[in-house]
């Protein structure tokens, strides 16, 4: 596809985008370039020109490598915090519905701010914006640590901190997603996305496992986890500070509702992107099982709390294996079909987890969900990034957030209510069946998705 569009710093009228047949332009930046954000005149600088394909080729770009390493440290801390929040809320309430209510407090700020967050990401220096959002994230962990340490912690405080974190995510995710495509050359974007997912999944293995160890310390363990998370954000901030970034050129400067809606207007003209986003929404809505892990581990599996971290880490183990395979395979032609197959596999693995009555079968099912979700995620992100103009990347990420974050957050509410009504295991298994049904229906109704192939 070829996109004809113009974005002017002086023009404040809503933009119109036209889609014409033709090959995608051979060179488009990916995240901030080596010395900053790449433009048509200043492509990303690779330290050593690669002579052959490598599963780690994107790491040869200095600024991407910095962000990648800093993200690993930060994600490890954040995954520890996710475990702590879920278990601490369960300890305070012993109510599945209260766990599900976390999704409401994370969803509402995203619905209110996500489109505006995309405009900000397309209007200002993305590196500086990320520095600010990482600072706010660190502050939320400090609030959790202090309130737990001094005995102030309550469900209300956890809900409030979750809402503040979600509001910050509305600005952080668009900036981060739009930043990455300018850090590497366009042809290496799929590899960069795969490596990002790999490092995220490694952190999701290490973080919950360490978190499970600290859970034995009671409230003191929660305090340690929250302080570790607060400090871990410094790694990303240091990486951003060391980047050779300069002011970005040609970005959207019209901070208005009309500019915010540009992403939705573009999405209407791109049914292939719309179908992948919709599929992701329904899959994560019906397959939101992780929120029920504390009651499932305690009441269904009846395993010691020391092993809860293993359950939390299991999806990441499967995802890591899938991510490594994806990085070795490289570009895949039948990307649309692979999205459909992987989402069906995600639903099937969710059914296995919900029906499991033993610890290791539950681990296997959770690992399957992680592996299938990673394959789907890489394909969906590649399709979206390669079919989105750079000037719209931030706003398209915001629109995408309504789907890939809104789905699981609403799904947490649905999962909490369903578990209260029909039981924990049956509600998870039924959600997996719904994922399979929705995916099969999408494949039937949207032939363009199952027939989609990547450009040469």
Characteristics:
single chain; 456 residues; mainly alpha; two-stranded antiparallel sheet; globular; disordered N terminus
Which helices and strands appear, and what pairs or packs with what?
Blueprint: E1 2-4, E2 18-20, H1 62-93, H2 96-123, H3 126-149, H4 155-179, H5 189-214, H6 219-242, H7 257-260, H8 262-268, H9 271-286, H10 293-301, H11 308-329, H12 335-355, H13 359-386, H14 393-404, H15 406-422, H16 424-445, H17 447-450
Description:
- There is one protein chain.
- The protein is mostly helical and 456 residues long.
- The protein has 17 helices and two strands.
- Strands 1-2 form a two-stranded antiparallel ribbon.
Strand content: under 5%
What is the structural class?
mainly alpha
Low-confidence stretches: 1-43, 45-52
Tell me the series of helices and strands, N- to C-terminal. Answer: EEHHHHHHHHHHHHHHHHH
Number of strands: 2
How many individual helices? 17
What's the shape?
A: globular
Concise description?
The protein is an all-alpha fold. The protein has helices spanning 62-93, 96-123, 126-149, 155-179, 189-214, 219-242, 257-260, 262-268, 271-286, 293-301, 308-329, 335-355, 359-386, 393-404, 406-422, 424-445, 447-450; strands spanning 2-4, 18-20.
């Amino acid at each position: 596809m070829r996109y004809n569009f113009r974005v002017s710093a002086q023009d404040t009228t809503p933009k119109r985008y036209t889609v014409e047949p033709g090959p995608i332009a051979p060179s488009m930046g990916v995240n901030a370039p080596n010395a900053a954000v790449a433009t048509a005149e200043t492509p990303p600088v690779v330290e050593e020109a690669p002579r052959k394909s490598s599963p780690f080729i994107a790491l040869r770009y200095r600024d991407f490598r910095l962000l990648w390493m800093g993200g690993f440290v930060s994600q490890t801390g954040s995954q520890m915090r996710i475990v702590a929040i879920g278990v601490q809320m369960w300890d305070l309430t012993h109510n599945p519905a209260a766990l599900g209510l976390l999704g409401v407090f994370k969803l509402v700020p995203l619905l209110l701010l996500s489109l505006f967050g995309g405009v900000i990401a397309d209007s200002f220096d993305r590196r500086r914006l990320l520095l600010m959002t990482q600072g706010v994230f660190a502050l939320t962990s400090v609030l959790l640590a202090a309130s737990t340490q001094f005995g102030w912690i309550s469900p209300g405080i956890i809900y409030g901190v979750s809402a503040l974190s979600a509001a910050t995510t509305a600005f952080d995710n668009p900036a981060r997603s739009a930043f990455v495509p300018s850090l590497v050359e366009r042809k290496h974007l799929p590899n960069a996305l795969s490596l990002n997912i790999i490092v995220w999944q490694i952190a999701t293995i290490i973080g919950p496992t360490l978190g499970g160890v600290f859970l034995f310390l009671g409230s003191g363990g929660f305090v340690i986890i929250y302080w570790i998370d607060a400090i871990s954000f410094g790694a990303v901030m240091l990486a951003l500070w060391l980047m050779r970034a300069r002011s970005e050129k040609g970005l959207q400067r019209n901070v208005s509702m009309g500019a915010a809606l540009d992403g939705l207007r573009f999405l209407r003209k791109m049914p292939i992107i719309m179908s992948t986003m919709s599929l992701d929404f329904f899959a994560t809505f019906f397959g939101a099982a992780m929120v029920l892990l504390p009651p499932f581990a305690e009441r269904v599996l009846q395993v010691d709390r020391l092993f809860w971290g293993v359950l939390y880490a299991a999806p990441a183990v499967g995802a890591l294996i899938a991510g490594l395979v994806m990085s070795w395979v490289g570009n895949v032609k039948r990307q649309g079909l692979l999205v459909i197959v992987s989402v069906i596999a995600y639903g099937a693995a969710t059914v296995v987890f919900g029906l499991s009555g033993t610890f290791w079968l539950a681990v296997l099912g959770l690992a399957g969900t992680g592996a299938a979700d990673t394959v789907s995620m890489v394909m969906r992100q590649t399709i979206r990034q390669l079919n989105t103009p750079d000037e719209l990347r931030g706003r398209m990420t915001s629109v995408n957030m309504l789907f890939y974050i809104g789905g699981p957050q609403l799904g947490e509410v649905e999962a909490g209510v369903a578990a209260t009504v029909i039981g924990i295991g049956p509600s998870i298994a039924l959600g997996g069946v719904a994922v399979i049904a929705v995916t099969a229906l999408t494949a039937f109704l949207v032939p363009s998705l199952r027939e989609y192939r990547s450009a040469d």
